[in-house]
Amino acid sequence: MAVTKQLRIAGRVQGVGFRYSLQREALAHGLAGWVRNRRDGTVEAVLQGGETAVAAVVAWARRGPPAARVRDVDVRDDAGGRHYSDFDQLPTE
Predict the structure, then answer these.
(1) Is residue 87 part of a domain?
(2) What is the pLDDT of residue 66?
(3) CATH of the domain at 36
(4) Does residue 19 carry a catalytic annotation?
(5) CA 19 – CA 64 distance, rounded (Å)
(6) What is the crossing angle of helices 51-61 and 18-28, to 10°?
(7) Which of 19, 69, 71, 82 is catalytic?
């Protein structure tokens, strides 16, 4: 069963390869969705796929790549109902 989660990751998460690394992790787990920087310094992502795979990438996001210092990860159910077929990096919003 597919689930969709929206993440907002705070801390030292921009300029450290977080988006690229999260995209790589998501693709390695067979997930679809997207990731982007936010102007407030956070990283936002939507993960869609199997529950176990989504949970694994959420757990990874709590650590991030080596140069990141994750302070908080807010995880919410995404009720938008959209189906994603790829995992993209979106422009900063």
Answers:
(1) no
(2) 96
(3) 3.30.70.100
(4) yes
(5) 9
(6) 160
(7) 19
In the block, residue with structure tokens 């997930």: 31
Determine which one of 37, 63, 71, 82 is catalytic: 37
Rounded distance, CA 51 to CA 41, Å?
A: 28
- Beta strands per DSSP E along the chain: 2-12, 32-37, 43-50, 69-77, 87-89
- The answer to whether residue 49 sits within a structural domain is yes
Domain count, the chain: 1
Tens digit of each residue's pLDDT (9 = 90 or more) over 29-62: 999 999 999 999 999 999 999 999 999 999 999 9
Alpha carbon distance, N-terminus to C-terminus of the chain: 30
Question: Quick check: is 64 in a domain?
Answer: yes
